[in-house]
Write a structure and sequence with these properties.
By secondary structure, the protein is α/β, with parallel strands linked by helices. 26% of the residues lie in helices and 27% in strands.
Length: 193
């Protein structure tokens, strides 16, 4: 199992953990960005991180893994492969609500692990947790590669991560990097603001 320092080293070596001046999806600025999609471009690296996370849930009997599209699709697959269980993903419908499509289903009593590559506020995961509960399935916990909260309690269930750090962010008007004026912010994320 990776410890936090080992995970950080791997994240830096694989250009997942970046330093600079970043414009986040929220509109806030930060000197740190985590591009977890890069973990999943390398099968060996994704296996290292997902095995480390799976070990944290060794004491649970998990029936199925689910994650929110699009960020956790690859992760839910890799976690399910390691755990030897099925995986599905939730996606937004036309009303922007998380739902199961493509014939996916959760059955009452199934033990479900919810996964996400990066947790910042936990918004998407909370929607998936509600979906799982509405199906009558049992939530085992939430697992992520990266916890950007530094260990804050964001869920009402067990939460495990491989790497945890409190990543500072700033409103544009209070951004010390903007005030320095040396480096304009870049937007490396997957969504437009």
């Amino acid at each position: 199992m990776l410890n936090n320092a080992e995970a950080e080293k791997l994240l830096k070596e694989n250009s997942v953990l970046l330093n600079g001046h970043f414009l986040l999806t929220s509109g806030r600025h930060s000197d740190t960005y985590l591009q977890c999609a890069r973990v999943f471009q390398d099968p060996k690296l994704s296996e290292i991180f997902c095995k480390s996370l799976a070990e944290k849930f060794d004491d649970e009997k998990i029936d199925i893994v689910i994650g929110p599209a699009i960020g956790a699709i690859l992760m839910s697959y890799e976690m399910s492969r390691i755990l030897g269980v099925k995986n599905i993903f939730a996606e937004r419908d036309t009303n922007s609500e998380m739902t199961l499509r493509r014939g996916f289903e959760l059955k009452p009593g199934q033990k479900v692990l919810v996964v996400e590559d990066v947790v910042t506020t936990g918004g998407s995961v909370k929607e998936v947790l509600k979906l799982v509960e509405n199906c009558g399935a049992e939530i085992v916990g939430v697992g992520s590669i990266v916890d950007r909260t530094g260990g804050e309690k964001v869920f009402d269930c067990r939460f495990e991560s491989v790497y945890s750090a409190k990543v500072k962010s700033y409103e544009k008007d209070n951004c010390p990097l903007c005030k320095e004026g040396n480096l304009p912010p870049i937007k490396p994320g997957s969504r437009k603001i």
